[in-house]
Structures are given as C-alpha cells and as structure tokens.
Amino acid sequence: MVHVIIWWLLVQVLSILALPFTTILFKNLPDRGYAFGKALAILFVSYILWLAASTHILPNTRWAIILIIALCAIGSLIVFLRRRHEIIDSVSENRGVIIATETIFLLSFVLYAVVRSYNPDILHTEKPMDFAFLNAILRSDYFPPHDPWLSGHSLNNYYFGHLMVATLTKLSGISSAITFNLSLALMFALAAIGAFSIVYNLVRLSQGAFKTALSFGLVAAVFLLILGNLEAVLELLYAHGLGGEGFWGWIGINGLDNPTGGHWYPTEHWWWWRASRVISPANGIDTIAEFPFFSFLLGDLHAHLMSLPFALLSLAFSLNIFASMEPIGLTWLRKNLPLFVLTIISLGALSVIHTWDLPIYTFIFIAAALMQAYLRRDTARQHRWWLEWGIFSIITVVGIFLLYLPFHLTFQSPVLGILPWNGPTTRWLHYLIIWGLFLFIGISFILAHVRSGLKSVSWRNLGLISLIVLSPWILWAIVELVTGGGSSIWGKLGHLAPLFILLAVILLIVLWKVQRFEGDQRIVLFALLLLFTGLLLTVGCELFYMADTFFGRMNTLFRFYYASWVLFALASAFALYYLYRHWQVSSTAGRVVKWIWRGFLILLVTGSLIYPVAATWNRTNAFSASPALDGLAFLERSNPSEDEAITWLNSNIEGSPVILEAVGNDYSMFGRVSQFTGLPTVLGWEQHEWIWRGSDRDLTGRRDDVNLIYASSDTRQVQTLLEKYNVSLVYVGKLEREAYGSAVSDRFQNFMDVAFENQGVTIYSVRE
After folding, report:
1. DSSP states of 278-306 as a string?
2. d(CA 441, CA 438)
3. HSE of 252 in the Cβ direction (CA atoms, 13 Å)?
4. N or C end of the chain: smaller count of CB under 10 Å?
5. Can you tell me the distance from the alpha carbon of 436 to that of 441, in angstroms, rounded to the nearest whole number?
6. Peptide bond before 144: cis, by omega within 30 degrees of 0?
7. Strands (E), 363-502
8. Nearest CA to 159 among 143, 171, 141, 178?
9. How many helices and strands in the chain, by DSSP H and E?
10. Distances in Å between the alpha carbon of 341 and those of 121, 233, 327, 346, 361?
11. pLDDT at 189
12. Which one, of 108, 267, 150, lies nearest residue 696 by Cα?
C-alpha cells in the first residue's frame, strides 16, 4: 500500500509542475488539457534525460533526473508568475472537471492495482522480456541501453516506454519488481483520463452541457479500457454446451471445437486468450487482434500498451490544433513555437515507444491541420492556405525525425518493407465479432449525417472520392498483376466493398461539412476523422502487410487493429452523444425504430461486458490468492536459493558486467538472471533476438559457445571464450545443473573465485 501511495504522489507532483504549461499549451480545449499534464510531464522529463544520456551530457542517474525536474520546476514557476491570472482563472473555471479527472485517475489506478495484485507474477508470455528491458535501462549509464540478452550490443527495439518507467523507478527508489506492476496501473489510469478528456472536450466544443460531457467522457474510458469484443458471448454458449460440431466448425475459432457444457461461465484455463485470436490463422501462424482490456489483463508491460496514454496525448494535440481559431500555417508556427515543439516531441515519442503508432497519429495530426487550415483560411489569400499547410506538414515530419535522431541513427528496423497480402481475407463473421459494437454505433453516426451530406453530391466529387477510397485496392491490384500473386482481384474488391462504401460516405460527409461550416459541426469532422482512420487501418490489413520475421500479417493485424480500437472507442463515445442530442423523433414509427436501436445497443454493450467480468474472474482465480504487487515474490516461494542469489546480484553488483547463464528455449525460465537483474548475458531468448534484429548474424555461434563454457573440461578453451565475450560472472543454478550435469560447478573452481554461494546457487567471478 505504501508503494502505491508513493507512486501516486510522485505522478501528482509531476502533474502539478506541468499545470502551467498545459494551461497555456491547450488553450483551445475547454479543460485546458488538464488530464494530459501527467503524461506530458513524464514524457518530457524522460525525453530530456534520454537526450542528455544519449549525447553523454548527463548519465542515467537519480541525481540527473532530480536536476531535470528541478529545472522543469523553475520553468514552471516562471510560466506561472508570468501568466498566473490566466492559470488561476482556468483552474477555477475548470474546478469540476479537474475533480472528475483526478477521481477517475485515482479510482482507475487503484482498481487496476487491486486486480493486478491477485496475479502479480512477472512470468509467462512477454513479461520476462519487458522486465529485462526495464532492468537493463536501470543499469545503463548512457543510451541506447545495453541488450540484456545479447552482451556487447545495444538494445535494438523501441524502448522509450520502458525508459519512462525506469525513470519513475529510479526517482521513487522502489524495486523494479514492484514498479513493473505499478506502471501497468499507471498506464491504465493515464489512458482512462486521456480518453475521458478527449471526448469531454469534443462534447463541450459541440456546445454540450458539463454533466453531459462528463457522462460521455466516462463512456469513452469504458469503451477504450473495459469493454471486450463479442467473442465472450460465444464462450458462454460454448460453456453451456449449446451448438453442435457443425456450428462451432462454422464459427472457426481455434479451441471452440466440441462443447462440453455444464457451467454458467467459461472454466477452461486461460479461455480468455481466444478473444485475441478470433481471426483464423494464416500460413500456420496465429493472427493477433488484441484490445486494451485483454492487454491489461494479460499484464505484459509491452510497447503497444505503454503507448496508449501517449497516443491519446498526440490526439489531444491534434484536437487542440483543430480547435484553434487561428489559421494553421507559418504565421501560426512562429507565434506558437513552444506548443509546436512539444507537439512534435509528443508525436515523435511514438516512434520510440511503439513505432507502429507513429504514421497513424501523424496522419491524424496532419489531416486535422488540413481541415483546420481550410476552415480558417484567409479569404483574401485563398491560394496560399494549402501551401502553408504543406510546409507546416513537412516541418512536422522532419521535426519528428530530428528530435529523436539519436534513436534513429542506432536503430536497425527488422521490417523489410510493405508487401501485398494475398493470403486469406478476414471473414466477415470474425470482423463483426471484433468490431460489432463500434460498427453499429459508427454506422448509425454516419447515417445521421448521410441524408444532408449526400443531397448535394456532384458526380465530380463522387468520382474523386471513389478514386481516393479505392486507391489502396488499385495499388494492391497493380502489384498483384505485376507479380502474379494469384489472388482474385475482383473477389477482394467485392469482399471489401462494404468498408469502401463506408469510407466513401464519410469523405462525402466531410466534404459537405467543410463547405458548409456551421457551429458545432466543426467538431463532428474530428470524430469522423477518427472513424475514417480506424476503418482505413482495418481495410489496409486486408491489402498489405509489413514484411518482418513473422512471415505474414500477424504483426500488422496486431498493431493496426489495436490502434483502430482506440480510434473507434473515442469516435463511438462521441457518436453516442451526437445521436443522444440530435436524434429527435415525433412519429410512432420513428419512436419504434429508436427503441429497437436502443435494444440492439444494450445487447451489444452487454455482450461486450461479458468478457471483462468473466475473464477477470478466471485470470485472478476468483480473487482467491493473497494480494501483493511484488512481481518476483513467486521466486522466493518456488526457489529461495535463486531468490537469494538474485537479491545479492542486485544489491552488490554495480554497472553492467556480463554474466553467463545457461541458454534454453524462449518463453521459459532460461534468461532469468539477466531478466531479473538487467545484467547482460551472452545469449538470452534467441528467437526474440532474431526477431528484433531481423537476422541471426549477431547470434551465430553464441549458443554453442555458452554450451562449451559450461561443458568443456579444457580450461584454456573456457577462459578464451570467457574473454571473447568479456564475461565477469558465471552463474550456476538449478537450470545450469539440469542442462550440464551436477558437476558443472566444479569446472570453474580452479581458475575463478566464488563471489556468492548458497545451497542451490554458486556465482563465480573472473580473477583479476
């Protein structure tokens, strides 16, 4: 409990320092960006530390972090003294939303921490990798951090999310085994208030009442973080034994084969995993369609999860730009340079937190700036607005790259390029299981505008928009024809036609609205932009994929569907508000239609709530364990000798000397010493290293060399290999004895010193 309070207080202090800046920067938003102060402060402090450590100006130490925060505090005080009346008035005017924001943040933080405390172990899936990253960053004096699973190399992955967690960990002085879980709670709470704030501001900018804005802001947080897809409805049917083999064969979700029945809820171990694997595998490789609740329930401190609050931060900057009364262009840029710099720092951060998000949210930012520039164009210089927007966009893209240049200079992407997808398309059944609720709300939102939006459509506009919408398919078809891919070109078009029609209708509505700019209709454009981008991403996954070491579209679906969930959740929450406010009926038939619509909505929301309730019950084992937040407590219970050795390493070994441990399979306990301590080892999870680097060039021979060191009786050969990899410590524990024999420890006694020893573990150090 003490650690939870310390972590919460630390974030609160940082948010207070950010308050003067957010009040000035987000001047176009009704809540003045209050909810984003926490994320912005964490990002900015971490960015300065990263930049200083990457250029060797400051080391990655606690004192360096304190210095940076002190400088930020001075800057915050200066801004406050200069603009104190504006800031005080803003806080006073927004007192209600500030209280609501802090309440949501605290409740979300505590709620997730409690749920996580019933399953805190840093075990299984990708948690060992994420923990290894975190601990390696904590031990790295400068950046890029060393690779904990490939000694002598720096980490070739996007690691900035882990760096932000490491920064807070260093500052708080709390063990990383605890902050791993506290950080999950923090990301959950930051995402909750981020989603709340964006939709709150959209509603207020649409002239919505305060309480109404609060209500639909909460809906946005629930849509983003709590709801699951509709696969859990099928799990309930399956658990009750409903449906025969033919039905479940038609459903086609792996694991749902022959229903057994007899339970009111799913009881199979980890049944909830299937909700992220709805789409049929391709080429023998699973497809992944995660959503935020699944990610937080799983508990991997992974890049796509940590990116959520900062993706929402970038959307806040996009909305702030869109809501500006000044035309976007070079004049705006000169007058708002600090805002612009922080905007591209926030956008650029996505490239080093979760690179897949960068093009998505950059597109939204530039598209929002385009609509704003057109709506606010100077009628006296109509021919210049598009030129100034173009220059503004180029500066944005270049700035994003330059502000994170140290990362881009060292990172080697394993992605080989973009290739056409000619594998199986996503079945409409599976698509609806994933997106059913959001599609229902989104299509209803579109239909609310379609009558007015299409009544003035010209054939010229229709042709142009059709060409724009179909351009991805046209490009895909050309590549398929040239390469002889073998896919049915017209079959693909027919399969995707409903989505292309939706995209075209959205663009026609946008075109109509920008030409007839009226009051709160301006904000509808931003919601339509989110909806359009989300749909476009799902269409893109059927046409192209990012070629990487997974040999298919698994990663493409995973990353882009995740972003689509964010965009659909926000757009749907605002769409519900719009329908609530504007759907007025007077006829009996109209009322009947409205009640039927509400009935479908209730059914879909109820179906989407089944997953979080039932899956949480399963994941926490019905809340039967003793709650704790120490992610390594399991080690003390299962292997006290190893726990004592790990504690000794973390307490007594400074810096990043290389430690040797046994090599085994990925997703196992092999690599656990480097994972738990952050000390680099010769080779950890080999397949992961291959995935991160795109080849096995840097891995070749390492597994054999580690085996030789542990197994060879040739002392000279062993010493030569230890020198080759600059090994300082050799770890001999349970896994090493199982892999190389119980006498493995005797081989090092003649030429190494015993640095640590207990009943189960011996750690040798190289003699000076």
Report:
1. -SPPBTTB------HHHHHHHT---HHHH
2. 5
3. 12
4. C
5. 9
6. yes
7. 417-420
8. 143
9. 32, 6
10. 40, 46, 18, 9, 16
11. 98
12. 150
Q: Are 473 and 496 in contact (CB under 8 A)?
A: yes
Reply yes or no on whether the pLDDT at 262 is more than 60.
no
Is the pLDDT confidence value at 745 over 70? Answer: yes
d(CA 292, CA 298): 10
List, for residues 357-369, the tens digit of each pLDDT value: 999 999 999 999 9
pLDDT value of position 21: 94
Q: Which two tokens stand for residue 702?
A: 């390492």
CA 522/CA 205 separation, integer angstroms: 9
Read off the pLDDT of each residue in 596-619 and give the average, rounded to a whole number. 94
At 335 the pLDDT is: 87
Give Cα 58 to chain centroid, integer Å.
Answer: 29
Question: Is the pLDDT higher at 639 or at 622?
Answer: 639
Q: How far is CA 109 from CA 104, 194, 493, 548, in A?
A: 8, 13, 45, 36
- Within 206-284, residue ranges assigned H as helices are 210-225, 231-239, 245-251
> Which range (300-309, 515-524, 670-679) has the least confidence?
515-524
135: Cα separation from own chain's centroid? 20
The Cα 555–Cα 214 span in angstroms is: 36
What six digits make up the tokens of 40? 């912005």
> Are 425 and 545 a contacting pair, CB within 8 Å?
no
Categorize the per-residue pLDDT at 379 as very low, low, confident or very high, splitting at 50, 70 and 90: low
